[in-house]
Write a structure and sequence with these properties.
The protein is an alpha/beta fold. The protein has 15 helices and 27 strands. The strands form seven sheets. Strands 14, 15, 16, 17, 18, 19, 20, 21 and 22 form a nine-stranded parallel beta sheet that branches. A six-stranded mixed beta sheet has the order 2-1-3-4-12-11, with no helix packed on it. It is elongated and about 85 Å long.
Length: 543
């Protein structure tokens, strides 16, 4: 068990961090012997541990005791660890020290050091771990660091330090048993049928992009001749579609059912027709209003739910007002009959208070936390997490969005470039676990976007060589809630309060289960052992 010495105001972040790095911990008790004690406030003299981990970006007395000259660098900077770049947002301490071992550096200078004293290993890490975690889970990373799983690197560095210090510990990785990661296929439904558009902005954009725009894309190598033909055919057939003589080619439920091969996905639908909502700058943008409300597509929604799809809210004002959230949620729940509901905000509108407002409105989870103009890890992790201000709401961060990849003014990538970028995120999902949440909009398979082939290629890359659970958002959140419910209970203490064994329990079972990974030091090499756990019977871990 890790003993943690922190200020009271950091306990909310500490609790969430140790739900992500699921390992036994407690607020350190003076006089009790620990294998490791993690300190962020500099007060550690009364705590006993085999390994002492001191985090902080301001000089501590121990730095002066070992003869270290330290200087602080404020604001965002980048550290190097192994082959990774680790962004640090809240400041870092740089050490001029003979104890440097290259664990963590900034431009060749040490940002960490270690030494041995009185039979224990002391690690000094020059940033405040929990300040960094708070930043990531509340403000999020800027787009230039979108591809860096920063929070997961913090966990991996701590794991590395424990292993290097010969500390035995147990953890539950963020992936169901037998899986590399969870993949959630999601779709924001902004339009639902071209017949709802006549002389409006959407129709004008469609006509331009499917005709002249497609020709320009062909010249730039971004479209094939076949795609150009499909778009021009769609243009020519438009009068017959609008007259009801030919099928409407913007049919999200049917389109995705044909390409997802019975992988049930999650659709986020707009509650009310013609309601633009209020923007973050408090203006009203009329073109944000949708030409449909969920009640207008009752039959299609009922069929989709019957086939196994999940329906969530594509919220208008829920992000800024709990009463609006309740009205919007009631409109969707009345149609789906669901007792729990997830949300994703239209245009990804969100602010620091949105998670608490959504929780107060009664939502089970949210999946807005992502980028409009990048793909990757806004929170530095792809694990579902509980926002710091919340008690029950779970945030399921979004990983990859079509419009971020391809829209002009955003990344505007060639399909091969986009697929290479997605491969990096998928590689991270396999390494770290968590969820890969893909957002492919309702029109993206149809003319004029024609991103169906890319979407199928993306799904093939997700599947190839990976053990993937394709889950609906609600199913993924439910598994993470179950993992969070797993408890570590101390059942035996040794001399001087040294903890010898734990019991691992869960209040209920889960069919997917999890892995309990036991790390033990060995004579020549670190050893780890995996045990399956689904909550039906407790297991014990001995140190």
């Amino acid at each position: 068990m890790i003993g943690v010495v922190v200020h009271e105001h950091d306990l909310d972040v500490v609790r969430e961090f140790f739900e992500l790095f699921k390992t036994p911990w407690e607020r350190a008790v003076p006089g009790r012997q620990y294998r490791a004690v993690l300190v962020t406030d500099g007060a550690f003299s009364m705590f006993n541990a085999n390994a002492l981990l001191i985090y902080g970006s301001r000089g501590f007395e121990i730095d002066r005791e070992v003869g270290t000259v330290a200087r602080r660098i404020d604001g965002p900077t980048e550290l190097e660890w192994k082959e990774a770049t680790l962004p640090v947002y809240t400041g870092v301490e740089i050490f001029a020290t003979a104890h440097q071992d290259g664990v963590l550096q900034r431009q060749g200078e040490a940002a960490a050091y270690k030494f041995c004293a009185n039979g224990r290993t002391v690690w000094r890490i020059g940033y405040d771990l929990f300040d960094e975690v708070r930043y990531l889970l509340t403000k999020g990373q800027p787009p230039e660091h979108a591809l860096t799983p920063t929070l997961e690197l913090h966990i991996e560095l701590l794991r590395h330090i424990l292993i290097e210090s010969n500390v035995p510990f147990v953890e539950i990785p963020p992936r169901p048993a037998g899986c590399d990661f969870i993949c959630c296929l999601t779709h924001d439904v902004d339009f639902f049928g071209i017949r709802r558009h006549w002389f409006d902005r959407t129709m004008a954009g469609f006509l331009y992009r499917s005709s002249v725009g497609s020709l320009i894309d062909l010249a730039r190598g971004r479209r094939s001749v076949a795609d150009l033909g499909r778009n021009w055919l769609a243009c020519c057939s438009l009068p017959f579609v609008m007259a009801g003589l030919l099928p409407d080619f913007w049919r999200p439920f049917k389109d995705y059912a044909s390409v997802e091969d019975q992988r049930n996905s999650t659709f986020f639908l707009i509650p009310f027709e013609g309601v633009p909502g209020i923007a973050p700058d408090r203006t009203t943008k009329s073109w944000r209003a949708a030409p449909y409300g969920i009640a207008d597509v009752r039959e299609e929604v009922t069929d989709a739910v019957f086939r196994g799809s999940e329906i969530g809210l594509h919220g208008i004002d829920a992000w800024r007002d709990s009463d609006s959230g309740k009205r919007e949620m009631r409109e969707v729940a009345a149609l789906t009959g669901s007792k729990t509901l997830g949300s994703r905000m239209h245009w990804l509108y969100f602010d620091a208070s949105s998670p608490k407002r959504l929780e107060n409105a009664g939502f089970d989870y949210d999946s807005t936390w992502g980028y409009n103009d990048a793909v990757g890890y806004r929170a530095g992790t792809s694990q579902a997490f509980r926002p710091i201000a919340c008690n029950s709401l779970i945030e399921l961060p979004m990983s990859i969005m079509d419009s971020a990849l391809f829209s002009s003014g955003r990344l505007s990538l060639h399909p091969e470039e986009a697929l290479d970028l997605c491969r990096k995120i998928i590689k991270g999902a396999k390494h770290f676990g968590g969820t890969l949440v893909v957002n492919w909009h309702d029109r993206s398979l149809a003319p004029e976007r024609l991103l169906g082939r890319f979407y199928q290629s993306l799904l093939e890359v997700v599947k190839k060589g990976h053990r993937v659970w394709f889950a609906k958002c609600g199913e993924a959140v439910e598994w993470f809630r179950w993992r969070r419910s797993i408890q570590f209970r101390r059942i035996q203490n040794g001399p001087n309060g040294h903890i010898l064994s734990f019991q691992i329990t869960a209040p209920r079972s889960h069919s997917r289960g999890a892995v309990v990974r036991v790390h033990r030091p060995a004579v020549t090499v670190h050893e780890s052992m995996d045990r399956m756990f689904n909550g039906t019977a407790s297991i014990e871990f001995e140190t």
